[in-house]
Amino acid sequence: MNNNNSNNLSERLAALREEMRREGIDACIFPSSDPHASEYVAPHWQSRQWISGFTGSAGTAVVTLDEAALWTDSRYFLQAAQQLRVDEGSWQLMKEGIPSTPDIIEWLLRKMSALPGKGQGAAGGVVAIDGMVENYADVTMLQQQLRRIGATIRTNYDPLSAIWTDRPAVPSGQIRSINGGEPVEHKLMRLREILKGNCCDAMVFSDLMQIAWTLNLRGCDIKHTPVFVAYLVVRKDPVSSKGLFSFLSSKGESIATLYCNGPLTEEARQSLQQAGVETAPYDDFLPKSDGKGGLAALLASADRIMADSRTLNYTIFNNIKEKAVDMPSPVDEMKAIKNPVEIEGFRMAMRRDGVAMVRFLRWLLPAVEAGGQTEISVSDKLEELRREAPECYDLSFGTIAGYNAHGAIVHYTATPESDARLETSGLLLVDSGAQYTDGTTDITRTIPLGPLTDEMRRAYTLVLKANIALATTPFPEGVNGTNIDAIARSVLWRGHLSYLHGTGHGVGWCLSVHEGPHSVRLDWRETPLMAGMTITDEPGVYLEGRFGIRIENTMLVVKDCETECGTFLRLEPLTLCPISLVPVDWSLMTSQEVAWLNNYHARVREELLPLLADEADKAWLIKATEAVELTN
To answer: Which of 61, 122, 259, 365 could pair with 30 as two cysteines, CB 3.0-4.6 Å apart?
Structure first.
């Protein structure tokens, strides 16, 4: 069952339903997740994609004994309808955000109420969801909802384990050491102090970014994110465990255990050994029928275990819940504040990324004028240019290249079916980024490909003004992202425009391009912004069926000044790339905004010009960053 053709997908559904009948299951839920709450999911855990054929990044599939449905958002309506082959009747597409679309529980209520012997409103039945691939908090909420309709939930069952015969293995790529700017011993010491302060004996990590950051390790198990599949246990007090694990610290004691699949480089092995971190196989941590293994050892040695039910999967958390102290992991806030090594790494990565972007922008217009370019072809070209740098080994997310109407779909991903041909008019929105050995990038530029309407010019200018407003407004230390969100958004509000996504998100260092706990958005975010944090500045406008505009720089929170009113912070651009001035309506710009643009472009030119080898690229950059003078 390798291919996603109609016959194979039908065979998969039939095989699943046979398993469900054998196990007494009335419905199976397939989320888009893995045991580690990862943003991107390795092939081994792509169960929803395997059973449905739908390859989009977001969606939940539900299969009953006689029906199948998939819920996804507007980004994927067209793609899902085609891949699910809804016209053939095997699958129903549930369009999230449409008022007439029932949620999963409502749909299950109707379907399970019709089961033989069930009365209306008391559905009963058994719903299965793999407890290893959904977090404890969400499964518990689902349990409560199902209880209202008289149904029970089964979490100790992977519905595809018996029928997905060519399932990819759990990833096991090589794990390497990096210079994270702070020794592993120091990070573990900070965590042990937190354990002492909360009267806990140990803490459990399943979030792969938290584990990678804590141990100064990186891997290649997950697409777009340089992490490795693992669990980590950190203990308040060291323990002696001779002979139990692959290696111990030089003192024969360990303060942490890493459960992982991938082979460690010698440098990584030595780094862990020096820090007192022992290793064990990934599967050794999981619950065992014989009551042995890492999880059992943890329960036997600890009375209070710090764990986060929002990230730890249901199966693991449910095993430790009697001893669990449920609280957010402290690592998210620790890694959000970048140290000098990480900050310098960001700067180096941004220079390389800026070179690739300049070469791309210089290439783009002549290529479009020559004809034959599409959203996918220009995305491929940008990736090609980035990968010419030896330090670039992946994208940080799938490139968003949306032409005109597609640019109005906020997280649009071009498919062979939707791939638009680029013409010499209108706007192309390109949101992209890369993973380098010393940093992670995220940048959006909206590029004019030819004549624009007055509506486009006005909207572009207001988005630019909104971006500059956030970039130029100091704010007191201690405020959070919600406090400053309206600085950017209000510029657009005054023009009776708005956008629904956040204004900015954190960016990890050689980790996920989307990093919390801080962000700039309308809904409440408690975490204060602090010097050393990275955050994007990306207001936008999206007019359905016409065009979309977003301008995004990755920023560093830095100290601005101290006054009698306290310490003030500001945002400093890390991204180095010209912002197109062609669409700007200069009558709407202030002298202060133009001064910021000129200063930013002068810095872009100063830092990137020496790195460009091609004279045509240099000439393009000089022209694109020429200073502007207002005449009005």
So the answer is: 61
Q: Confirm if 230 and 277 have CB atoms less than 8 A apart.
A: no
pLDDT score, position 87: 74
Residue pointed to by tokens 């092939």 = 43
Encoded amino acid at 488, one letter: A
Q: Determine the straight-line distance between the first and last CA of the chain, rounded to whole angstroms.
A: 68
> Residue 83 and residue 595: Cα distance in Å, rounded?
50
Element (H, E) at 434: strand 434-436
Contact 214, 249 (CB under 8 A): no
Buried (b) or exposed (e) across 488-505, using 16+ Cβ within 10 A? bbebbeebebebeebbbb
Q: Are strands 152-154 and 126-128 parallel, antiparallel or unpaired?
A: parallel
Assess contact for 111 and 67: CB atoms under 8 A. yes
Residue from 297, 300, 259 nearest 277 by CA: 259
Give strand ranges (E) for 181-302.
202-205, 217-218, 230-240, 253-260, 277-281
CB 144 within 8 A of CB 136: no
Buried b (16+ CB within 10 A) or exposed e, 429-459: bbbbbbbbbbbbbbbbbbbbbeebeeebbbb
Position 575 scores a pLDDT of 98
Give residue-wise pLDDT tens across range 594-632: 999 999 999 999 999 999 999 999 999 999 999 999 876
Write the CB contacts of 477 (distance below 8 Å, at least 6 apart in sequence).
Answer: 528, 530, 531, 566, 567, 568, 569
List of E strands, 500-603:
504-506, 515-520, 534-537, 540-543, 547-550, 553-563, 566-573
Exposed / middle / buried, residue 382 (Cβ in 10 Å: 0-12, 13-18, 19+): buried
What are the pLDDT digits (tens) for 75-121?
A: 788 788 888 987 788 899 999 988 999 999 889 888 877 666 554 44
pTM: 0.92
Average pLDDT score, the chain: 93
Rg (CA), the chain: 26
